[in-house]
Amino acid sequence: xxxxxxxxxxxxxxxxxxxxxxxxxxxxxxxxxxxxxxxxxxxxxxxxxxxxxxxxxxxxxxxxxxxxxxxxxxxxxxxxxxxxxxxxxxxxxxxxxxxxxxxxxxxxxxxxxxxxxxxxxxxxxxxxxxxxxxxxxxxxxxxxxxxxxxxxxxxxxxxxxxxxxxxxxxxxxxxxxxxxxxxxxxxxxxxxxxxxxxxxxxxxxxxxxxxxxxxxxxxxxxxxxxxxxxxxxxxxxxxxxxxxxxxxxxxxxxxxxxxxxxxxxxxxxxxxx
Length: 273
Hints:
alpha/beta
C-alpha cells in the first residue's frame, strides 16, 4: 500500500456486516474505495444493493487481496469470529483495523492471532448511524498511535475526506475514558429503561433529555452493552462507583428526612424562625 495522495483507491474488506458496518460502508464507497465483506449472517442482498462483494466463504474473502481489513463484529463475538479464520490465506501483509467500542481487548487478541507481518490499527469512531447520519464532519475518531502508513489510512478515509476530528491515545487510556463516559451513559439509559420512564404532561427539559437517553441507549442491543462491561477492565470499577454514589445521595436524602421530621415534631409555638 503506497502513501500516495488522498485520491488513491483502496481495497477494503469488512468482517461482520451489521448495521454499523453498513453505515461505514456507505461513506467508504462514496469515496471511491472498493469493498468486500464477510459475515456469519447472509448479507448478500444488502451488499448487492450497496455495491459490495459479499463472501460467504471466509477463505475466499481472505484471498480477495484487500489492502485493509476492518473488523466490525460485535465486541463479544470478535474472538469467536476471528479464531477459526484461515489467516494463512492472506495474499499480502495486511492492515487490520478494529472499530470496536473497547480497545485493549481487541488489540491484545489481534496481536496474538494475526500473522506477524500484519499491522493493527485500533480505532473507535465515536459516532454511529444516528449521530453520523448527516455526515462525519467534526465528529471524533479515536485511534492508537502506530506506524505512519496506518495513520495514512485513517487520515485518507476519515479526516481528509470526511472532516473527522482525530484523537490519538493509547488503548488503555481510551478504555479508562470510555468506562467513565460511554459505559456509564449506557448504564444510566438501561436503568431508566428498567424504570419504564415515559413522557408526562409536565416534562422538564431535563426529563426530556433522560427520555432521549433511554431511547438512544436501548436502540443498541444488550449484547453490545454487556460487551462494554465484559471487555473493558475498567468498567466494573465505574459500576461500583455508580452504586456507591447512589448510596451516598440516598443517605443524604434520608438524613434530611430525619431533620425535617424532627422539625415537624416541634409544636408551632415553640419553633424558632
